[in-house]
Amino acid sequence: MFWKEKDVVENLCEVIHAAFYSAYKISKKRDVSMRMTAYILAVRRVAAAAKMRRLYS
Question: What is the pLDDT of residue 57?
Answer without folding.
Answer: 67
